[in-house]
């Protein structure tokens, strides 16, 4: 008869393994990574509990928000030719007299 042994029902992923899979899955949040691991939806992803111990700097920058600009109270571009709309066209099959293949319209 075999001796009784304790079975680990839940194991925690190491810090490096957690961040490795976080980066491999395009900085996916850890709740979603745990869901993928439980369901076995990603080949090679170990069935461990993934937790973050600190916020990754790239993720912190991505989650930060900027303040919005105040709307202008008056229209400042009243002068003629203050604002120009242009389009670049080319390359043209036939060169211009100066040998150019692109034009601004």
UniProtKB/TrEMBL annotation:
Organism: Tanacetum cinerariifolium
Descriptive protein name: Gag-Pol polyprotein
InterPro entries in alphabetical order: GAG-pre-integrase_dom (IPR025724), Retrotran_Ty1/copia-like (IPR039537)
Domain GAG-pre-integrase: 3-64
Pfam hit, one: gag_pre-integrs
